[in-house]
From TrEMBL, chain B:
It catalyses: L-aspartyl-tRNA(Asn) + L-glutamine + ATP + H2O = L-asparaginyl-tRNA(Asn) + L-glutamate + ADP + phosphate + 2 H(+); L-glutamyl-tRNA(Gln) + L-glutamine + ATP + H2O = L-glutaminyl-tRNA(Gln) + L-glutamate + ADP + phosphate + H(+). It holds the Pfam family GatC. Keywords: ATP-binding, Ligase, Nucleotide-binding, Protein biosynthesis, Transferase. One of its GO terms (molecular function) is transferase activity. HAMAP family: GatC. The gene is gatC. Heterotrimer of A, B and C subunits. This is Aspartyl/glutamyl-tRNA(Asn/Gln) amidotransferase subunit C. It comes from Actinomadura harenae.
Amino acid sequence: MSVETPMKYDDALARFEPVLGIETHIELGTVSKMFCGCKTGFGAEPNTQVCPVCLGLPGTLPVTNRAAIEGIIKIGLALNCDIVEWCRFARKNYFYPDMPKNYQISQYDEPLCVDGHLDVEVDGETYRIEIERVHMEEDTGKSLHVGGETGRIHGADYSLVDYNRAGIPLVEIVTKPITATGERAPLVARAYAGELRDLVRSLGVSDVKMEQGSMRCDVNVSLMPRGADEWGTRTETKNVNSLRSVERSVRSEIERQAGVLAAGGRITQETRHFQEATGTTTSGRSKEEAQDYRYFPEPDLIPMAPAREWVEELRATLPELPAARRRRVQGEWGLTDLELRDVVNAGALDLIEDTITAGADAGSARKWWMNELSRRATEQSVELADLPITPAQVARVQQMVDAKELNDKLARKVFEGVLAGEGGPDEVVAARGLKVVSDTGALEAIIDQVIADNADAADKVRSGKVAAVGALVGAVMKASRGQADAAGARELLLKKLDQA
Amino acid sequence: MSAITRAEVAHLARLSRLALGEDELDHLAAQLDQIISAVARVQEVAAEDIPPTSHALPLTNVYRADENRPSLTPEQALDAAPAAEQQRFRVPRILDEEA
């Protein structure tokens, strides 16, 4: 293998214009497989969700899962695609043991959904990603490679195959070439994958968990010299399984290809693999022999001709899609573009909306999730949504703040308790004795003591320097261990010092 | 002109993982050529308005409900496998060492 020296990103972009193409595979969340009744759950014991159909045993016939077809049509509609009036499945023939039939049922020249688009936003600018096609196929089995270099297929002594995943409905979404993204190419790729994930999740047809492989991206990258109009040779980085990796793989592939081209080399059209550890791609199967899958129409399945009425019925079931929802909440919550972006990036949109539904006002709901709880999530290195606190609990805390039973400082202690597993907000309040001192007698006693202890400050206030009351309020809060209501304490102090 | 060349037959054999000797290639290429030529005569009668047939039944849209049916047990599934290990199908090495 030749030694490659990647070019610095900025230099690469100064000389070359990247062209991207992204193929995304999404497993649908149906209860049964695409062509048989086997279960589809993730993480089952090997070969416990297989039957004669998905094992490709002789004499079996596949029958199409209606829910899977509804799922892909919903995805197609949400991506603004046309749903074709007639199409067929095709056999993709290949010899590789991840499919026991020696072929995968897929679609070839007659995809179910065509010509769509998805708008994504990067740094406030909108990029329209054109969708070439969305087609239906079945997932393959999982192989474990034994011997040789750790778990790699090359040089393995033999492989062990689990067919639980074989036959799970799989939707493939293929973009048209994505051009004119310049230095933002990695961010556009990431934004597309993220927007697609959110879109499919909103449809409820897949759990789109990249870390579990129910959504995976193949990222094609090529470079052409700036000013040229002919695209370069592309490489395809397979099965990229996080948004961050999508971004990093594009970036590193731009740097690598630029290095090769600048040194007078040629890009080999090949599959590559993204290495999480180094953030770079390595060469996989070379396509020296062009793929020849000998596609032909699947004779075991009859054509699909989705009736227009059915398509319109499905269109009517589409929920509010993420882009429309973002516009709505931005208006309802009164957010700036930047604030909205922060909320989206923090994964807080659902949480805040659910908190509002549970009774909190928009400002407070956003404040708690974006400040206090985001901070704690970062401290614990977990996603906001994975914190052990529910939107209803956050709303309850805010309810107590509104009722002046808690102040913000005490509320934070309640969150601390809930996150520490001490129970719900009411239990934490009771167990830790976290209540604003609303007993006027007790508060007055504290205030009298504070005035006595801080005669200088008290005199200043008496002589009209009202600003000096701040120090006294602080002292009251300290003396009450944070449990006094600051505004109430201030009022009482001013009254006692003849300034009210 | 032949309908299929010897080189194409060799290529197809390779894709189908069939190890054919030189004699067999000569033999099969000639036979396949005859078969394809015979079948190709259908095209002489196929008019523009007759779409190619991929299925014998005039049906569309046959779907099943999304319901589970019993699967095999792993023992049943692996029963006919030439080799099994860790409750998985054991298959020979897939790719050779990287060149």
